[in-house]
Amino acid sequence: MENMAFFFSELSLTQYSIMCDYKPSTIAASAVYCARIVLGRYPFWSNELKMCTGYSDEKLLCCVKVMMELCYETCKEGTMEVFKKFSSLYKSRVSCIAQEIFQEAFLS
C-alpha cells in the first residue's frame, strides 16, 4: 500500500498540470486514494481517512481522475523512469501490479 501511494506521488511529480493545479496535501491524499483503488481496498475513501486528511472523496475526485489517467498512460508504455523504478523488487513491483490491473480492466 505504501509503495503504491509513493508510486502515484512520484508519478504526479512528472505532470506539470498536477503540480500547478493541486496543493501538496491534495496530491498526497489523492495518491492514497488511487493506491486503494488499484489494490482494491474498499472503501476507497473511508471516514477515518476523511478525518485524518480533512478531504472528502468528492474534493479529491478531480485530482484522482488525472492521476489515474496518468498512471494508465505510463503503465501502457512502461518506459518512464518512475515506472522502471517502481517495477523493482525493492519497491514491491507496484508499477507492474498497476499495469496488470489496467490491462485486465481494459481487456475484459
From TrEMBL:
Pfam families: Cyclin_C. Residues 1-69 form the Cyclin-like domain. Residues 1-100 form the Cyclin C-terminal domain. This is Cyclin B1. It comes from Trifolium medium.
